[in-house]
Fold this protein.
Amino acid sequence: MTESRNVVIVTGIPGVGKSTVVNTAVEQVKKKHGEDILILNIGTEMFEVATKAGHVKNRDELRKLPTYLQREIQRKAGESIAEKSKSKRTIVDTHTLIQTNNGYLIGLPEWVVNAIKPKTVVLVEADSEKIASRRTADPSRTRDAQTVTDIQIHQEMCRGAAVSVGTITGATVRIIKNREGLVEEAAAELADTLME
Ligand code: ATP
Ligand code: MG
């Protein structure tokens, strides 16, 4: 595999701080290298597809749809992301496992990752207690309530999913800790991966 790859997938459980770390890393790259990084979000792309088709009114309703419909929306979002990310350094911000009414929907199935061909999968992790409190303190989103033990299990499952993406695509897997109050540090690691 010698083709150059320009996509870094950033994943991790809801409320771990993906979007915060991504936005900070993009600012750091702009300051240091003067380069604009494209940020795409599979959830946002899916929301656009689903809204146009009249299936949902807000983003957090997506995971409540019948899973066949979520998969269909996910396929369209994956195609659109593969197209948009072709020619510049891109971050794809996404969930690894989406809790539906019928088990977990896999956020990065084979047909999505093979379309995107990431160079690296970055898994953002944080202390499970801190994630629980970040979710409660964030009024901008409606995230499902989970116990600290469930959050921990969910994070362990994300490691398995991230490794699977590496196995399918040859992408490297990098775990980045998003420590409380230290977003800049986590973002600097992501910026290094982007510019590698
Ligand atoms: P989702 O998957 O639901 O989109 P996310 O992983 O993108 O969630 P964010 O929205 O980035 O998570 O962050 C969730 C909340 O945690 C926000 O209120 C954010 O300000 C806060 N937060 C993120 N990182 C840190 C940190 N290192 N220290 C303290 N608070 C943080
Ligand atoms: Mg986010």
Remarks:
- Residues 122 and 172 are 8 Å apart (CA to CA).
